[in-house]
Amino acid sequence: MLLIKTVLFPGKIKEANGTGFIGNISKIACGYDFMLALDNSGGVWSWEATLQRNLALVPPTRIALFPVQVKDSTGSSLLSGITAISAGGNGSYGHSLALDSSNNVWAWGSDANGQLGDNDGTDTDKSLPVQVLDSAGALPFV
Question: pLDDT at residue 92 above 60?
Fold first, then answer.
């Protein structure tokens, strides 16, 4: 049985292997039940207590008590070149956003109401980042 305890005081965040600590973090964002961290090299870390697909893992996992690096849209490499992050939604509608150095916006997580902006017409949750498009399906930020 896995027990999650409430931490009442600030502390360092352990790496995915549970031994070291993540460092060189420049920004953080918190969603309803998940967190994002942006490191100085443009990588994104995520951890959560439920499966809302905010981790961008392959395959998706049920719980991640320690941060894992977010994969890119192919799932074979890490998301990189990120300059800003945001965490949104509540409950089962959690989603993550990232802005890269080329001004592309990436989104993953719940798409129950089309909030990921990939305009695929399915409102299907995405476990890996998808590029946000305008209403015509074009890349608006390039």
Answer: yes
Contact between 101 and 81 under an 8 Å Cβ cutoff? The reply is yes
Better-predicted residue by pLDDT, 77 or 62: 77
Structure tokens belonging to residue 107? 């989104």
Residues 43, 41, 98, 6: is their CA dihedral positive or negative?
A: positive
β-bridge mates for residue 37, sequence order: 28, 45
The dihedral built from the CA positions of residue 98, 74, 35 and 94, taken in this order, carries a sign that is positive
Q: Measuring CA to CA, which residue among 136, 135, 86, 76 is closest to residue 106?
A: 86
The whole-model pTM stands at 0.81
Long-range contacts of 47-50 (CB under 8 A, 24+ apart): 47/13, 48/94, 49/4
In this structure, what token pair is assigned to residue 61? 């996992």
User: For residue range 44-63, what is the model confidence (pLDDT) as tens digits?
Assistant: 998 876 555 555 554 555 55
Query: How many Cα atoms within 13 Å fall on the side-chain side of residue 28?
Result: 10
Residue 106 has pLDDT above 60, yes or no: yes
75: Cα separation from own chain's centroid:
13
